[in-house]
Amino acid sequence: MKGDTQLIATLNSLLADELTATNQYMVHAEMCENWGFEKLHKTIQKRAIVEMKHAEKLISRILFLEGVPIVSEYRKMYIGADVPKMFENDLMLENGAVKSYNTAVKLARDVADNATRDLLQSILDDEDGHVDEIETTQDQIGQMGIQVFLSTRVE
Fold this sequence. Notes:
Heme b binds at residue 52. This is Bacterioferritin. The chain is mostly helical. It is built from five helices and no strands. The longest helix has 31 residues, at 114-144. The protein starts with a helix and ends with a helix.
């Protein structure tokens, strides 16, 4: 099925976002593991896997629309030097994703591609959940202090 060219370009832009997010989360997860925060490592690693699955869905949809997935483009990664900075950078990433997916959902609706709209909406729902998770973690850090918070993330 030949898809709308602007929508395919938007899907490729979202793909670059997802590939970047996957890499940023993997680096943050591995840093946490290196520091001995195994529970934090697992949490961030799970988020990276969700982002990787988003990328896979976008690739599949681009191919279905007879587009060419561009997997060689990435955005700038923001690697935090410590746990609070990681979450600050990750929140910035997720807030950007929410904005981009909202715009993409509108575009898909405007070009009457409801299947793509539904796919984008499901990913948007995941991204909203990531924002909530990160904000909750930041609240915990603020209320407990970083030392107490990190002591709860060791196995």
